[in-house]
Write a structure and sequence with these properties.
By secondary structure, the chain is of the alpha/beta class. It folds into 2 domains: 201 residues, Quinone Oxidoreductase, Chain A, domain 1; 126 residues, 3-Layer(aba) Sandwich (Rossmann fold), CATH 3.40.50.720. The protein is 25% helix and 26% strand. It has 11 helices and 17 strands. Strands 3, 4, 5, 8, 9, 16 and 17 form a 7-stranded mixed beta sheet that branches. The chain has a 6-stranded parallel beta sheet with strand order 12-11-10-13-14-15, with helices on both faces. A two-stranded antiparallel sheet has the order 1-2.
């Protein structure tokens, strides 16, 4: 926790907090920062847990061009609301019926989730047709604004998710954190894959997002085949109900109706396309992907195979996924790290030493 000797800020909050920032590519460093003040439409949240996402790794390593420097990474945040801006409860609801949800999060002491998506304009053609994830003016936690590798963080009330104890009593806070990006983006990737009822799904890579998405697909009646280079991840996949688990470049035991590529490895695109049955769809879930090799039309795309990218998510995706997670208890494999070891957590993720999801717990 923050040093109790730190001078107190208004409202009984400490004036400073521990945090980590990316100041240049390849460098994550610990710093002491002022506790942020919420803007009129924002909430100030005391961080209880923050998931360590592969996107954080791309921000640290410069794979994603910096939008803000220095920046506190982290966008899978579970926290307690400790202050609200003057206009937070009346913040614009955006698309859909989000007004009551905003009122639910804008109360002191409530538990909320802070996700990747932080802002959309609400006025462009994409927002107006329900595709706010494509908004050209979108902004993101841990990339455009400081995130959860810290003791406190802010979030626009309209983009926070309520996580009340009665609905999510089955989950510890470190289990809830991965739901806020890994879970949500995996849910959108699953929907983009157009998996038919009772279909055969291939999952390439089996980290934080994949192990949640596979369980959602299984709960919906799919037969899931996991393909990943990690022996430990293959073992976990079988424990979680996968029909098979093989090496990433191997072939599944049957043709697939759909596949989702979670590993940021472009070489796997033709491999996954080759495993699809006629009319199958490959959904690529990552924000970053290495170069894709040349595709052979007849082997990879003919017979109406489809490739789809996934770009962020909408808030409705988030609410739909969290409703499903509240109803169907997901098994979430986590490895916890204290905030002081955030650099170690990212290094372990980069080296594939994390089985499941790494989570920082201040």
């Amino acid at each position: 926790m923050t040093d109790p000797r730190s001078p107190a800020a208004p409202g009984g909050l400490p004036a400073t907090m521990r945090a980590w920032v990316v100041s240049e590519p390849g460098r994550l460093e610990p710093v002491e920062l002022p506790v942020p003040e919420p803007a009129p439409e924002e909430l100030l949240v005391r961080v209880l847990a923050c998931g360590v996402c592969r996107t954080d790794l791309h921000v640290r390593d410069g794979d994603l061009p910096p939008h803000r420097s220095p920046v506190v990474p982290g966008h899978e945040i579970v926290g307690e609301v400790v202050a609200t801006g003057a206009e937070a409860a009346a913040a614009g609801a955006g698309p859909g019926n989000l007004g009551p949800r905003i009122a639910e999060v804008a109360r002191i002491g409530g538990r909320v989730g802070i996700p990747w998506l932080r802002h959309t304009c609400g006025k462009c053609r994409y927002c107006l047709r329900g595709q706010e994830n494509l908004c050209p003016n979108s902004r993101y936690t841990g990339w455009d604004a400081d995130g959860g590798y810290a003791e406190y963080a802010t979030v626009p009330a309209a983009y926070a998710y309520p996580l009340p104890g009665d609905r999510f009593a089955a989950y510890a806070e470190q289990e809830l954190a991965p739901l806020l990006c890994a879970g949500i983006i995996g849910y959108r990737a699953l929907r983009r894959a157009d998996l038919p009822a009772g279909g055969r799904l291939g999952v390439y890579g089996f980290g934080g997002s994949a192990h949640l998405t596979a369980q959602v697909a299984e709960a919906e009646g799919a037969r899931v085949h996991v393909l990943t280079r990690s022996a430990a991840a293959r073992e976990l996949a079988l424990e979680l109900g996968a029909a098979s688990a093989r090496d990433a470049y191997g072939a599944p035991p049957e043709l697939l109706d759909a596949a989702i590529l979670f590993a940021p490895v472009g070489d796997l695109v033709p491999t996954a396309l080759s495993a699809l049955d006629r009319g199958g769809t490959l959904s690529i879930a990552g924000i970053y992907l290495t170069a894709v090799p040349s595709l052979d039309y007849e082997r990879h795309l003919f017979q109406e195979r489809t490739v789809r990218s996934v770009t962020a998510n909408t808030r409705e995706d988030g609410h739909a996924f969290l409703a499903a997670a509240a109803t169907h208890r997901l098994r979430i494999a986590t490895t916890t790290y204290p905030l002081d070891r955030a650099d170690e957590a990212l290094d372990d993720l980069a080296a594939d030493r994390v089985n499941g999801v790494a989570v920082l717990v201040p």
